[in-house]
């Protein structure tokens, strides 16, 4: 059985890296000093398990437990350890550390698996500093050229490759060298469904499409006290109208979020000359996602015309919905049943590394409930009992897959 | 007659201090290094005119040309040399440097005036870093305690008094020591009216009320991909709705502007937990201004209730409308007529130091047209001819007042 105490302790310890005591959360954004500290900790734990550690050119970390036989493609268990700002301790870390717990179970039983088990921590899953999100797994899956990825500019003016080298995680493994036989990812749901239904395990059979855009509204700066309302080209006012209209797009299962907004010159008595905001659109249905994108474009075009103002939109990220491997999903459901855990099939609202690896290998995900449906927030929480239930399912699925 | 070439040259030279060649504007925000440089330049010009220079505890600069007789209250000509970000070269500087041009005309004519003429440059008129705006003149007029003012926190976390001392302009004159007999301020209109009507000189008889508030919307951070729309407490979405409603407040002569807006955590895939924005409301009519404030409060209260979200508003600045001295305004109109310049009576949309000095002395203002009504923008412009026309009116009014 899985050693739950070590897993829970490691989650707590990793969660202390980048901690902000005043805010009660932690900020371990990709390729910052805090991310480096988290990576260093992860490597020490991998070394203690005597894993064969390899780091690729985009900074993905792979720790492999050798198999008894000869060279075979590994069963991979992955997720990420980077975070958003003021994050909880579970998003990503839970899946990586549960992977270590699975390996530890094999080590402690004194048996070598019938095929290698690789625990992967992918670079920059959150995508808050460098876009796109799920970047490390996307590069690994061949969906993004590694040199292009290394050249990504950050929201803070840095270049991804420079920051990766700076923190010492620019490895030499060519991305994509380690193609898994199958891929499993254990994650907190980050949404309210499992808790609301009182279900213990989510069997993730698909994942919604993600469209990220950056919208720039170009008005004209002028004096707030002297410019008649009808002569204004107020970028903030037009941006606010656009954002208000977004509510009408977010219907029938489409989600729409404006997470970032910035005004220029951002002074109290100056009509803003510029507003820049991001739009995150999601839908499990590609046709509906395209319709939402179309409606957004129409709203922006209409506003540009009626307000006599320049608006343009740049696509930052676009991922189509993903359907996971049904055989692997069934195996997860079977393991949950065997362990006496209630479960349901479900859609992932969040993007995950599994969606990228699904391009090159059969992949599926296991979810555990998120208390209050809260994530990307220091109050993100799942009970120890449910965290261990999820890890038990993961271990059981791994055992079943390796026993075949 | 007034030496126009020196005035135009000084406007250009002062406008080069804090210049940003890429943006084609200048940023000389109160009590920054650029403000210090501008002040140093102004002092050198005052010294060249052998003015008696005094600096008070809030950093207001007074340069006085002695009168022929004994001690009398001065005729004061004032404005400011601090700027917003990416500003034009005229806002404020024009009035101060025209004051020097008036003094220079007396110097060059070799006559001492019948009463002292004091040229004043007031600290922090723009109020973009430290609120309230018109701070130096407000302190001078006894409307704000100097020690309170020195304790003002900046938008950048600094303390006004520290920055004033740092740039070496914390004088020892007790504010309010120099009460003027009368006060005149020459300024660009910063709005479109004079140009639209083809009028050369604005005789400013009143100035609208100004209400600045900072609104904070407190939502709850959550994941953009997993949180159903109906379970969100999205601070950005609520702020956008509030800003959109502001258009309905800005009717019948009321102006409403949102110049600053900031989200937290401001990440692309996180529903914002907080939005902070400023509202600038103006109206020449106090009753209407109060009605607008009431409507804003109602909108915010209604949104807080319907969205189940906490919203609060903090008053940053509140100045009632000001009526200028009618006798002084008539004198301006008479001078414009005498010089063959077209003129009209008008209301100032912008706040000005004159509105504060009006509390302690008869005050009025002279406006010249702003090309395209543009200000707080590097494209702020007035032709040399009109700049000189305004200065000629100022000199003529000063001569008339001193001749009485
Ligand atoms: N799981 C997770 O929070 N991923 C970040 C990418 C996204 O879904 O926005
Ligand atoms: N004249 C001027 O721009 N003053 C700044 C204060 C304001 O009106 O916002």
Automatic annotation (TrEMBL), chains A, B:
GO MF annotations in UniProt: hydrolase activity
Residues making up the signal peptide according to the UniProt record: none
Pfam families in the record: M20_dimer, Peptidase_M20
Family matches, as InterPro entries: Amidase_Cbmase, Bact_exopeptidase_dim_dom, Peptidase_M20, Peptidase_M20_dimer
Lineage top rank: taxon: Bacteria
Keywords: Hydrolase
Residues annotated as domain Peptidase M20 dimerisation: 208-304
Recorded family membership: Belongs to the peptidase M20 family.
PANTHER family: ALLANTOATE AMIDOHYDROLASE, ALLANTOATE DEIMINASE-RELATED
Protein name, entry field: Zn-dependent hydrolase
């Amino acid at each position: 059985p899985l050693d739950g105490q070590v897993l829970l302790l490691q989650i707590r310890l990793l969660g202390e890296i980048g901690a902000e005591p005043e805010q009660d959360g932690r900020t371990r954004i990709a390729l910052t000093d805090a991310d480096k500290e988290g990576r260093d900790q992860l490597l020490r734990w991998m070394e203690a398990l005597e894993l064969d550690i390899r780091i690729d050119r985009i900074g993905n970390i792979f720790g492999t437990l050798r198999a008894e036989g000869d060279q075979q493609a590994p069963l991979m268990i992955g997720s990420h350890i980077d975070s958003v700002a003021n994050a909880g301790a579970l998003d990503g870390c839970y899946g990586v550390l549960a992977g270590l717990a699975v390996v530890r179970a094999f080590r402690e039983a004194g048996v070598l698996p019938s095929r290698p088990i690789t625990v992967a921590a992918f670079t920059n899953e959150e995508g808050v500093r460098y876009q796109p999100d799920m970047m490390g797994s996307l590069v690994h899956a061949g969906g993004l050229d590694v040199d292009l990825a290394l050249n990504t500019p950050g929201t803070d003016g840095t270049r991804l490759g420079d920051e990766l080298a700076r923190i010492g995680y620019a490895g030499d493994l060519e991305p994509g060298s380690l193609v898994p036989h199958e891929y499993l990812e254990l994650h907190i749901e980050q949404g309210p469904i499992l808790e609301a239904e009182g279900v213990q395990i989510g069997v993730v059979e698909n994942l919604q499409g993600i469209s990220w855009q950056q919208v720039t509204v170009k008005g004209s700066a002028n004096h707030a006290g002297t410019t008649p309302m009808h002569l204004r080209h107020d970028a903030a006012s037009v941006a606010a109208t656009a954002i208000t209209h977004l509510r009408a797009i977010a219907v029938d299962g489409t989600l729409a979020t404006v997470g970032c907004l910035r005004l220029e010159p951002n002074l109290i008595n100056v009509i803003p000359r510029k507003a820049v905001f991001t739009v995150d659109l999601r839908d499990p249905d590609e046709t509906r996602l395209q319709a939402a994108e179309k409606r957004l474009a129409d709203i922006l075009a209409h506003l540009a015309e009626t307000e006599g103002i320049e608006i343009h939109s740049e696509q930052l990220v676009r991922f189509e919905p993903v359907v996971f491997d049904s055989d692997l999903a069934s195996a997860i459901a079977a393991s949950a049943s065997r362990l006496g855990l209630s479960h349901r099939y479900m859609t992932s609202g969040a993007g995950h590394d599994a969606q990228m690896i699904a391009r090159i290998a059969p992949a599926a995900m296991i979810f555990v409930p998120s208390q209050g449906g809260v994530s990307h927030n220091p109050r993100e929480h799942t009970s120890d009992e449910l965290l261990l239930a999820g890890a038990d399912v993961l271990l059981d699925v791994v055992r079943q897959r390796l026993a075949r």
